[in-house]
Amino acid sequence: MKVYKGYLIALKTNISTVILYCSIYLLVALSMVYLSSGEKSSGSYSQQRLSIGVADRDNSLWSETLLEYLKQYHDVTVMEDDMSALAEAVYSSEIVYAVLIPEDFLNACILGEETVGTLTESGSQWEYYVNGRIDSFVNTARVLLAGGYSSEEAAQHVLETAEVQPQVKLESTREDAAVYNVFRFMPYLYFSILCFTLGLIQKEYQNTDIRKRLLASSLTLKSQNIQSLLAFFTIGFFSWILCEGIGMITCASEFLDNPYQWLILLNGFTIMLAALSAAYFVGSMAKTDAAVNGMANVLSLGFCFLGGIFVPLELLTGAIRKIGQFFPTYWYAQNISILCFNDEMTASLKATVFQGLLIQILFSLACTSVALAIGKARRQEDS
């Protein structure tokens, strides 16, 4: 077991990297738990009413209807048609949004293509919120008028639609925000520790002199590969115990209350295997320490950004989301979200979770196979 022991001895020289990343992760995890303590939801939700100023340049049936429509959602103040006064009101936070209804509102906006004028602070988040209400009003009125209703009838029906309130029922009240926030970032810890440490060790074993000395020994090539993979798995297994242990300690009570503890740990084990295979690939490809560091950074950061670790999956756009599905971190992030925010594991959710676990394992096997093929090609070049 000379090769196996060699990996373990070489790990001692890189133990400082492990300690560094674990310390950073521990601080981040503790801060996440602290911040999550204020995220408990009461289960009660209400829409937010904003202070809006409206300048009516039309004074018609439809401009008054829009005014009444907005009053059902927001606190509306009728203001003079003075742009400087509106801008001053927005700047002084007297109102957060100003709406300017143009002349001939019916033909210009409802039947035409002109939009309602608005004024708010640059980059305000409320722009989309209020504009969505106005667009809903215009579209509803346009459909009613096209359907043959008179202006009076259409205006009345538009106001009636605003009175309809949806009944929302939460399918799950489970919100393990602390567990989710702590364990969501676990893949970055695995990829950083394993790629930087084992990548450097594996790179050294790809050195021509070391390979020739091993070939001259009594060890067969098969034995060398088995010992190498066994050493990787041993180091990965202990890193899994260390990293998952840090996660469990930082949010102990929430983790123990979660009914899917073992699935969370299994999900961490499969992403650890994916990180191990990535480290083996990095060490087999790189020829210098700088190359190992570069590849490790690209893999760890790239996988985590595109796979929903640093940016939640819900915020990823369609194209980025499709690209992320090629990475094991995507399936890890999807699984951890399911395991933290569902009271009951339905058949479809179980299938999704186990599919994610299987894809992570298949990624590990594929990446390891490619690394072994690269190693074999290099040995043939040297011979």
From TrEMBL:
Q: Which residues form the ABC-2 type transporter transmembrane domain?
A: 18-370
> What residue intervals traverse the membrane?
15-35, 229-250, 262-282, 294-313, 353-374
Q: Which UniProt keywords apply?
A: Cell membrane, Membrane, Transmembrane, Transmembrane helix
Localization recorded for this chain is: Cell membrane
Q: Which GO terms describe its molecular function?
A: ABC-type transporter activity
Q: Which GO terms describe its cellular component?
A: plasma membrane
Membrane topology per record = Multi-pass membrane protein
| Primary site of residence | membrane
| Pfam families given in the database record | ABC2_membrane_3
What InterPro entries does the entry give? ABC-2_transporter_component, ABC2_TM
Database matches in PANTHER family: MEMBRANE COMPONENT OF ABC TRANSPORTER YHHJ-RELATED (PTHR30294), TRANSPORT PERMEASE PROTEIN (PTHR30294:SF38)
Q: What is this protein called?
A: ABC transporter permease
Upper lineage is: Bacteria, Bacillati, Bacillota, Clostridia, Lachnospirales
